[in-house]
Structure formats: C-alpha cells, structure tokens
Amino acid sequence: MRDFTKSHEWLSINTATVKKQWSLDKIIDECAKRNIRAISPWRDQVAAVGIDKVAKQLRAHSMQLSGYCRGGFFPAVDAKGIGAAYDDNRRAIDEAKTLNAPCLVLVVGSLPGALQGKALYTDIQLARTQVYDGIQKALEYAVEIGIPLAIEPLHPMQAAERACVNTLEQALDICDALDPQRKGRLGVALDVYHTWWDPKLKQQIQRAGKDRLMAFHVCDWLTPTRDLLNDRGMMGDGVIEIRKIRGWVESAGYCQFSEVEIFSDQDWWDRPGEEVLDTCISRHCSSV
Ligand code: ZN
C-alpha cells in the first residue's frame, strides 16, 4: 500500500470542495501553488470559465484530471426526455475528451422529477431499466471517442433523487453485463462516503479489480449527519475507516489518485478556500 503520510502526490481535489469560494480558474491556480497534481472539475464550473481556457490552463500547470463530473441522469418519462439525456451525455463525453479526463463519472439518475421535488413516476425498477439502457447507448459513443465511463454508486439515501444504483455490487453487475471482456471501457467511481457501510464492500472491491476501479473519492461521514447532500466531513472528522478501504482498493490494483470531494454548506464552504485546501493536504497525509 502506498505511503501517503509524507507527501500528497496522489491527492486530487474535486473542485466542488471549494466551489462556493472560487471559480475554477482560481481553484486550478491555488491547487497548482500547493503542488496538487490533479483535480476533478464539474461541468458547470468548466462552462463558467470556458472549456478551452480551462484546457489551456491545465496544460500550463501540467495538471491532470482524476475524473470529470458528471454524466448520467438517464431516466425520463418519455422518448424525448431519454433522447435529451443521451445528447447531454454525448456532450459530457466530448468535454471529458477535450480536458483529457481518464473517465467520465456517471451519477445515473433515478425517478424523473424527484430531484426537482415531484417524482413523475415511482417505479424504481423502470428507472433501473432506463439507466441500464442509457449506459449501454452512451457507452457506444464513449468507446468511439475513447472515454471510459465510471458508474458511481450512491448511498441509498439518494435513491429517489440522484441514483438508483446504490451498491458497488449493483454497479459491477452492470459493468459485467455491458463490458464482459473488461476492456477498460466501463467501471466504477468508488466513493467512501456512499459505500463505507456496505457489508460486501471489501468483497466487491476485489471483484472490481484494477480494470473496473477508475476513481477513488474520499471524505468522511459525520455523526450526526445534518443534511443528506451537503454535510460531508473532512477526512478524520467522522467514522469512515478510509485508510482500511484504501488498502482494499490498492490490493485490488488501484494505483491512481485519491480525490477529496466534500460538499459542506454548514462548515467547509464557509471557510477561506486556502484553509480548506491546506486542510485537505494535511488530512490526506494523516487520515487517508
Ligand atoms: Zn464521489
């Protein structure tokens, strides 16, 4: 297992972590200043600065991506909606290519309309079928362009609004069905926040192996958790055995970046960005 205690060379910052403080161009500069070698940006942050400018800035700093956030949200109530989701995923794949991302992360979606406050249907099995079909179709285009897709299973508390793929096992079943030969086209983004509680986690990480493990996201689970989406903790402040899970992931062959992804509207988004990044670095050494 790699020793992270003395350097942060494998730290990546998911740019949502400081999105309330800074625009993406400032985030890239502040990360570069601290020798952070990788980021994972969100599409809206990229669009706000302009993708060509972002690509140029990344090249100037020799900064890599550890992923691109995000595609997905496949389910819809009608063919028009399904088609719009497909078109949007194609654009996300193109953007990932422009930014030289190692993968496009998929938050697959669930009951259409639920995220906006009113589910337009309630059949989660239908949503899962639409997700499967949506990934299959997006994958054809992704293979053509050369961008791997990484399914991110979300904690079941998000099953209505954001993702009906809720365990690593479920995500890997989709991978095995759509990419049976493990050609590196389809895999998973493993986020400790969403998966730490899963009794099959270690077993399914082994099943995933190097070909399927495409991203590793870290933060911590606070007790109590005050908000279902935006109360993620800094590594070391909660109950997740992050280093143990990283050990499992590395035993399975993963050797890429460890990406800090913290949504925190009652704590970290209120602090100066400099303090947040400096804390990410020190906690990455002590608690990841
Ligand atoms: Zn994540």
Radius of gyration from the alpha-carbon trace, in angstroms: 18 Å
User: Would you report the number of β strands?
Assistant: 9
* CATH hierarchy, class: Alpha Beta
CATH H-tier superfamily: Divalent-metal-dependent TIM barrel enzymes
Question: Would you tell me which CATH topology applies?
Answer: TIM Barrel
What do these coordinates show?
- This protein is α/β, with parallel strands linked by helices.
- 42% of the residues lie in helices and 12% in strands.
- It is built from ten helices and nine strands.
- The protein has helices spanning 24-33, 43-49, 51-60, 79-98, 124-145, 168-178, 192-195, 201-212, 242-251, 273-287; strands at 11-14, 38-40, 64-65, 68-72, 104-107, 149-151, 186-191, 213-218, 258-260.
- The radius of gyration is 18 Å and the shape is globular.
- The termini are close together.
- The model has no long low-confidence stretch (mean pLDDT 98).
- The chain binds zinc ion.
- Residues 152, 191, 217, 261 line the site of zinc ion (ZN).
Task: Give the topology, please.
Blueprint: E1 11-14, H1 24-33, E2 38-40, H2 43-49, H3 51-60, E3 64-65, E4 68-72, H4 79-98, E5 104-107, H5 124-145, E6 149-151, H6 168-178, E7 186-191, H7 192-195, H8 201-212, E8 213-218, H9 242-251, E9 258-260, H10 273-287
Parallel strand pairs: 1-2, 1-9, 2-3, 4-5, 5-6, 6-7, 7-8, 8-9
Helix pairs in contact: 4-5, 6-8, 8-9
The protein binds zinc ion (ZN).
